[in-house]
TrEMBL record:
<feature type="domain" description="HNH nuclease">
    <location>
        <begin position="26"/>
        <end position="83"/>
    </location>
</feature>
<dbReference type="GO" id="GO:0008270">
    <property type="term" value="F:zinc ion binding"/>
</dbReference>
<feature type="region of interest" description="Disordered">
    <location>
        <begin position="163"/>
        <end position="197"/>
    </location>
</feature>
<dbReference type="Pfam" id="PF01844">
    <property type="entry name" value="HNH"/>
</dbReference>
<dbReference type="InterPro" id="IPR002711">
    <property type="entry name" value="HNH"/>
</dbReference>
<dbReference type="GO" id="GO:0003676">
    <property type="term" value="F:nucleic acid binding"/>
</dbReference>
<dbReference type="GO" id="GO:0004519">
    <property type="term" value="F:endonuclease activity"/>
</dbReference>
<dbReference type="InterPro" id="IPR003615">
    <property type="entry name" value="HNH_nuc"/>
</dbReference>
<protein>
    <recommendedName>
        <fullName>HNH nuclease domain-containing protein</fullName>
    </recommendedName>
</protein>
């Protein structure tokens, strides 16, 4: 069964390396694909958040202005998590929010096994009541829907507008052109993309 809140099995390596945009918003399309259309912190999906997503500067611009348009400093996250993170310096969620260090309990609570993951959960309030209840509700919905495969596909499918990264031309080039072959759009073209995730 596809689980709605599974962090990546192991810390992922970034697949994309666009360069040269002078406005960090221009990296958004790459970041959507990089982070699988989910919030890197709480795993909310684009399709569950009609208000849209933010781009978080992992190292805050106020402290590291030179990283304002550094792709590797940008994270894709929901507005709630971005507001909670603010200018804080926290451990890197890509490294510390994997299935090796965080699991989602059946009651919706995040259970962390490392100091870094616990710190991020605490600083962003990821276990506060409304988050916990939200996860609990979705876990229950997916459990109920497992006997209705078509409904599960509708609820846990990828967005319809998977971006075709091969059409983009970053001004400074692309450090990792091979990553485009691993993009969700390409995987769907090759028939490799599962119905749900
Ligand atoms: Zn979030």
């Amino acid at each position: 069964m596809t689980a709605p809140f599974d962090y990546p099995t192991a810390p992922p390596v970034r697949r994309h390396g666009p360069l040269g945009y002078t406005d960090y918003e221009s990296y958004r399309t790459w970041l959507r694909d990089e982070f699988a259309f989910r919030c890197v912190y709480c795993l909310l999906r684009e399709r569950w958040v009609p208000g849209g997503f933010d781009l978080d500067h992992f190292r805050p611009i106020a402290i590291h202005p030179e990283k304002a348009t550094d792709y590797d400093n940008l994270l894709y996250c929901c507005s709630t998590c971005n507001s909670a993170k603010r200018q804080q310096i926290i451990p890197d969620p890509i490294q510390h929010f994997s299935g090796e260090s965080v699991i989602v309990n059946g009651d919706g609570l995040l259970i962390a096994s490392t100091t870094e993951a616990k710190f991020i959960i605490e600083q962003l309030g990821l276990n506060r009541k409304r988050y916990q209840e939200f996860r609990q509700v979705w876990l229950k919905i997916v459990e109920i829907l497992t006997s209705h495969p078509t409904a599960v596909s509708e609820v846990l499918r990828y967005p319809s507008d998977l971006p075709d990264l091969s059409t983009l031309r970053p001004p400074g080039g692309n450090r990792k052109p091979e990553g485009i072959e691993q993009s969700f759009h390409r995987r769907r073209e090759r028939g490799e993309l599962p119905d749900t995730y």
